[in-house]
Amino acid sequence: MTEPLAGIKVVDFTEYIAGPYCTMLLADMGADVVKVERPEGDAWRHTAPVAPYESRGFLGVNRGKRSIALDLERSDGRGIAQRLALEADVVTIAYRPGVAQRLGLDYEKLSKTKPELIYCENSAFGHNGPYAGRPGFDILSQAATGMVLYENKLERGVPTFITTLAVADLTTGMFMAFAIVSALYERTSTRKGKRIETSLFASGLAAQYRPLLSVDEVDGPVREGFLAELANRRQRGLRHEEAAKLRNEYVSPRGRNNYYRVYETRDGLIAVACLNNRQRRGMRDVLGVEDTTVEGISYDWFSEEVRQAHRANVEALETRIRERTTAEWIEALDAAYVPCGPVNFPEELFEHPHVEANRLMSTLDHPVLGPVRMPASPMLMDGTRPDSGKPPPYLGQHGPEVLREIGYKDGEIDRLLEDRVLVTRERLVPGA
Questions:
Q1: pTM beyond 0.85
Q2: Residues in Cβ contact with 248 at an 8 Å cutoff, skipping those fewer than 6 apart
Q3: Through-space distance between the first and last CA atoms of the chain, rounded to whole angstroms
């Protein structure tokens, strides 16, 4: 088993998705992650639960960790949290402004005692600017960064957010993990820690490599013209439908892309992904349609010529592809080197031969729920997939053992349990 972070201790004070996803990635790499939860547990445990204090959302971002549940409103609880943080190599935190200071878990205090500590703080919008201090979740980042409007998918007259994955949360978790590992590497030579700050807003911007790229000589005047007219119209009241139409007058939307989409076949669905004209010509020729816009090497899907070609061809392409099965089309398109593939239901992937061949699902034995299957780490390191082999913890599962490791005696632990400073699931769920 590959464990490049073996010996690294992480104390995680985060909830929901972004921070826990980060620390799960670190746990996959061998770090000892201690998740500090409230007495009632991470709030994510209670959203669509499958058992008391267990939910799919929580399970999906917390494998490989140990859980301790503490009442941080009590002085004993705060003392334990501070001792845990000072024993750690890495602390991750995502409290509202001022909370870390009140709990004695702020970077300024901890780093005075332990200057080699790596401290990663995630927030919704960062600490500066007009949005600083505002609460935030994935949808609010998608909204504030323009991602929602760029997608331009409507439901009941208003844009919908990206629902298939929490894009701002997950990218934030990846950025956090990358920054932490970079700081750990730097520490090997400097012996100094680092304060790392991330935000859902910053990650939402960073993920949009194309929508937020501006060639200012070309795009600047167009953007300024749109914004000036938008501000003028908003003063008089403006429905979203009108605002979207106004934007389209300034910023040409892409037309329908017949070469990068999903089609219905005779027995299912197929996706095609042609990103250059050689591939587009291959698909065109296999399907037997006319399209002169894919000659040469340049292709402008914002141009009226391309829009007209797509409108002219779409019905013929859809009709043609419905004539044969997905497997037949994949064989024909593969022969022409056209990138394509089947569209699978998520339920089909648990036993899928490609998933099994690459060991891309992990089965973990959860002490409350039994066998739990979930996607494994996507990486291979010297042919081995990082895997702690540990299931997501139940609430407070490792509290007593974690306290023993930092010097608490059994009598003290019993007192903390009786006083409900330290909480375990067994005490919350009768018969657990």
A1: yes
A2: none
A3: 32
